[in-house]
């Protein structure tokens, strides 16, 4: 019993440290996302999600789910269920208005007073990968 409690304490501490670090420095190592089978989108950022009404919608969902787990879940939570430290991305508005805000955040990140709350994900992930993530997010979206 004692050993068990000790182990619990240690793992809780580990978790705390890990989240703390990610939040403090935005220090998340980006994982590459294989988007070669998705339609290429070019260098200019689009304003709306091109994969929403697209023949490759389902492929985008699949790629987006795994890209999310590797690049966003550490901060925004597994299955996009936030633990409360970061916005819950299931609550992003579905459709064009949500797209606009999504794009703004993933391209620019969130930096205030020199602190990186969220890194500029657009610098490390392709536009294809980021719209695929948005496509997946819409499949788990909840009404506010
Ligand atoms: C290092 C932690 C971290 C990582 C990694 C991260 N985010 Fe964030 N994200 C945040 C924080 C913190 C905020 C709130 C920013 C603020 O306070 O303005 C945020 C805000 C957002 C918002 C705006 C949500 C809203 O309701 O305003 C979107 C969209 C978003 N993140 C998408 C993503 C996506 C997609 C990824 C992965 C590609 C990602 N984030 C990776 C920490 C992170």
Automatic annotation (TrEMBL):
GO MF assignments: electron transfer activity; heme binding; metal ion binding
Signal peptide feature range: 1-24
UniProt entry keywords in alphabetical sequence: Electron transport, Heme, Iron, Metal-binding, Signal, Transport
Recorded superkingdom: Bacteria
Cited InterPro entries: c550_proteobact, Cyt_c-like_dom, Cyt_c-like_dom_sf, Cytochrome_c550/c551-like
Species whose genome carries this gene: Halopseudomonas pelagia
ATP-binding listed as a keyword: no
Domain Cytochrome c: 59-141
NCBIfam families xrefs: c550_PedF
Protein name: Cytochrome c-550 PedF
